[in-house]
Design brief:
globular; 8 helices; NAD(P)-bd_dom_sf; KR_dom; binds NADP nicotinamide-adenine-dinucleotide phosphate; Ketoreductase domain-containing protein; alpha/beta; seven-stranded parallel beta sheet; Rossmann fold; single chain
Length: about 260
């Protein structure tokens, strides 16, 4: 059986790299995408060595995905090289914790570009490329999928998250619309919504004891998440052929439950 071809945008980040590790162990042909080439090469080497060379060698591509042409270029190259794409994970974004009155136009544009527009570019390219059936000689239904990272803060009002909540709510909207548009063609689209997760992105909170404790207390489970916990949800959504149009919160209850820790 041919290995599924999977592109991970933000592959060297906390959540992206754990997703890459899980998919590599599951035998996917990975295409790792981020801006920093050295980090991509290091991860590709680690993944290849971790399976004793049993997994297919990862391809790497540098791209700044706030530019749509860079995203299209990745899909064109992967399609040329492998004949198609099966799964796509978008693990690029930011955390913006600032009162709305301090959010400048420039910060708002930057937040929307990195979190919403880049997800849109990836989703649009996937909708162009994935429904093109790579190999369906048998009678198996076509199953292609995209997972986008939104955030728990887009579904639950937390103070001083207006900019990132706006950006990440847009990600949910585009995912659900595309899921409806492309379900007849075998393309599934889902989101994961992490709570605070221990990654380089969140280190400005997790490395500061007071801020970390305050964040832990906001989560009903009383702790922040680990990147591999979000990654395993991404893999589930990428691979389960009967899930589409869903937002899976991996957030210790943050988006739906009242925390009993906050008042202590
Ligand atoms: N960590 C959390 O607490 C948390 C909470 C809620 C939602 N999320 C969401 O989860 C997703 C993953 O977050 P994370 O914590 O894993 O982030 P991270 O550790 O900062 O990783 C981000 C990844 O994206 C790449 N990247 C950044 N800007 C890029 C650009 N313009 N073009 C291409 N690649 C770019 C980075 O590599 P280069 O710098 O080399 O490009 C890196 O591989 C994001 O959408 C984030 O908003 C995270």
């Amino acid at each position: 059986m041919t290995a599924p071809v999977s592109i991970i945008f933000g592959a060297t980040g906390g959540i992206g790299s754990e997703t890459a590790r899980l998919l590599s162990r599951r035998g996917h042909q990975l295409v790792l995408v981020a801006r920093n080439k050295d980090k991509l090469e290091k991860l590709a080497k680690e993944l290849h060595e971790a399976t004793g060379g049993a997994s297919p060698a990862c391809a790497i591509q540098t791209a700044d995905i706030v530019r749509s042409t860079a995203v299209d270029d990745v899909f064109d190259k992967v399609t040329d090289q492998y004949g198609g794409v099966d799964h796509v994970a978008h693990c690029v974004g930011s955390i913006v914790l600032k009162p709305i009155t301090s959010v400048t136009d420039a910060l708002l544009q930057e937040t929307l570009q990195l979190n919403t527009a880049s997800a849109f570019y990836v989703l649009r390219a996937a909708c162009k490329h994935l429904p093109r059936v790579r190999s369906n000689a048998g009678h198996e239904p076509v199953d292609k999928s995209v997972v986008l990272c939104t955030s728990a803060v887009s579904m639950h009002g937390l103070p001083n998250h207006e900019a990132i909540a706006a950006a990440k709510a847009g990600v949910i909207g585009m995912a659900q619309s595309a899921a409806a548009s492309y379900a007849p063609r075998g393309l599934r689209v889902n989101c994961v919504a992490p709570g605070m997760t221990d990654t380089p992105l969140a280190s400005f909170i997790t490395n500061r004891s007071t801020a970390r404790k305050a964040s832990e207390a906001l989560h009903p489970l009383g702790r922040i998440g680990r990147a591999e916990q979000v990654a395993s949800a991404i893999v589930l959504l990428l691979e389960n052929p009967f899930i589409t149009g869903q937002v899976l919160a991996v957030d210790g209850g943050l988006s739906t439950l009242v925390s009993q820790h906050a008042a202590r």
